[in-house]
Amino acid sequence: MYGFLIILGMETSKRVSVIDLGRFVALSFMVMLHVLQRTYPNFTSTWGSVYLLVISVTPFVFFSGMSYSYKKELRPVGFLYDILKRGFAYMLPLIWFLLFRVLLYGQWVDFPAAFSDFLEYPVNGLWICWVLLWIVLFVDVGLLLASLCPKFKVLFVTMVLVLAYTTLLLLRHYEVIPSDHFLAYDYFVIYVPVFLVGYLLGRLVFKFDNPYVSLSCLLAGAGGLVPIAINNPIFIQVKFLEAQWMFYLACFCAAIAYYGLLNLLKQVRFSKGVSFAGRFSMEMYFLHLMLLKNWGHLDLPGGWAIFGVTLGLYLLCFANTAIVTLVTYFVPFLHFALFGRHYSHYAFENALFDKLHDTCLSK
Q: Are 133 and 87 in contact (CB under 8 A)?
């Protein structure tokens, strides 16, 4: 595994392995959620769907907040540099998905309507790209302000996120933002508190790893989610100002469960390999949606057929991600064109943005 890391040119010291491990686990549950939505009749309306949703999406946003807690303050050039890199990473997959759907369903004559969906309601799971882009913009503004006084970095970032959250609520209230779904506004206001908690706790969460405490947290968090999911099977689908306390209680239970689970998993030898796979979380997210989200519900005859097809599709999603990522990884421009980023030291976008960085500094 370490030889493979060296071949790929990864800089392991610059990443926090437990966060990558958490991302992989969260995305594994997310893939299972999307597969079951295709294979199990009316799965979306069941409590199991809510359970998988809470233990996949919310931890993924939480871990994004944790990863940002390690970012240092930004100078003006660094701000531009980071926004452009993140913008490519989140928007290129979304654009590819839009074009793929237009091509697949022959919607060229109705392309304006398809593009309207792209802006008005980023369906098919890709709303998270918009949410992360919103968050990155506001966090980077906070990091830019922190360049004036680095010791107050956390305060600046928190202040900007809270101000943005409040401002967007007011803009929607006065209909400056045309709808709840515009650029995933509704998902932003739902999930930004989860991101902020991850940001504030990022350097503290996994400092303590007593195995008995970890196991207790795993059982308590996972068990606590069951009655919430059973009694509120559609609470995540209602307006964000309704039943919000129940959603955040579910997020708390998920965080407790992940704290215990990851503290236990990181002691296992294979966890390093799983953490490595978690570095490609956005690739996995995009590719499994490309594979699944253009299909309707599969009308399967019985329980064993549902089990077999579910397992097959689940494994196919991971195989698809592994094959496409490996094939494109050694062609940096191609990987960048598909996913908006590339990790290795010879990455195409590194050269592109470093040139931009040097040009700005020379002026």
A: yes
